[in-house]
Write a structure and sequence with these properties.
By secondary structure, the chain is an alpha/beta fold. It has a single domain (38-252), classed as Vaccinia Virus protein VP39 (Rossmann fold). It has helices spanning 39-47, 64-72, 85-97, 114-119, 147-153, 160-170, 187-194, 246-252, and strands spanning 9-13, 16-21, 26-31, 53-58, 76-81, 104-107, 126-131, 136-137, 154-155, 172-182, 198-209, 216-223, 230-231, 235-238. Strands 4, 5, 6, 7, 10, 11, 12, 13 and 14 form a nine-stranded mixed sheet that branches.
């Protein structure tokens, strides 16, 4: 089932649109074609239940998830880390457009490069790291000819996801919260990449409809914790009528956070 699109949009020229997102809480400028902000970003933002501190959004795109957290609390500052220069420029515009530029830093760099992370002051610096990595490895899928879509959907290298998770955890301070959304099929690799670096790992399956298999998996954990792994209550996005469930609708409007249970 496709992601839910943002709210009302306006064409702003140069292949861009201006969209109202999270019930109008954020205004986002983003490319009209290619990968666009949708359900995954809304779920990721809602899964990060933090009210203060430094947040790093790894692979931030146009800044949606990270800016959603900054907009939620004036005690949050966010680093939007994005390799694509055009998307990073849009993230900067979005921070300004939403009055968040004083608490949002846009870093156009390769998050997988340890030297680049250190020079940007990201080594074990974040109270929370959230990330929506590309879902596929180049060797396993037919790569899109659209460069923007390719970068958003395809991981570099044969160990792409493990490298991405390791890099993300390297930015997380001890005691910090890690939150990621990905595909359920990648669970074994996700747990291998996390290893013993996180504890209290919670797995939350997301189902498109009741009775359907999960099509997304949200993962959270705390760096250095010794708490055991647990399975969080599942989230169902759509009812039998095809409409968003009450919980999913509230998440899409920015009115509710993910229920992690326990």
């Amino acid at each position: 089932m496709p992601e839910r699109a943002p709210g009302p949009q306006t064409a702003v020229g140069d292949g861009l649109t201006e969209d109202k997102w999270l019930g109008g809480r954020l205004t986002l400028i983003q490319p009209k074609r290619g990968h666009r902000v949708g359900t995954d970003a809304a779920l990721l933002a809602a899964a990060a239940n933090v009210g203060q501190g430094r947040v790093v959004d790894v692979g931030a795109g146009v800044g949606a998830a990270g800016l959603a957290l900054a907009g939620r609390s004036h005690l949050i500052s966010v680093d939007l880390v994005e390799f694509d220069g055009e998307l990073a420029a849009l993230a900067r515009r979005n921070a300004e457009r939403n009055g968040l530029s004083t608490r949002a830093r846009v870093l156009c760099l390769d998050a997988l490069n340890s030297r680049a992370r250190r020079e940007a002051g990201l080594a074990e610096a974040a109270d929370c790291v959230l990330t929506n990595p590309p879902f596929f490895e180049a060797r396993r899928v037919r790569v899109s000819p659209d460069e923007g879509r390719r970068r958003a959907h395809v991981l570099p290298g044969v160990e792409g996801l493990r490298t991405w998770i390791s890099a993300s955890l390297a930015m997380l301070a001890p005691g910090g919260l890690f939150v990621m959304i990905h595909r359920p099929e990648a669970l074994a690799m996700i747990l291998t990449a996390i290893g013993a670096r996180l504890g209290g790992v919670a797995l939350l399956p997301v189902h498109p409809t009741s009775g359907a298999g999960a099509h997304r998996l949200i993962v959270s954990g705390v760096k250095g914790s010794k708490a055991p792994l647990r399975l969080a209550p599942a989230l169902v996005l759509h009812g039998a009528d095809g409409r968003l469930t009450q919980q999913a609708d509230a998440i899409h409007r920015g009115e509710r956070l993910i229920d992690w249970g326990g």
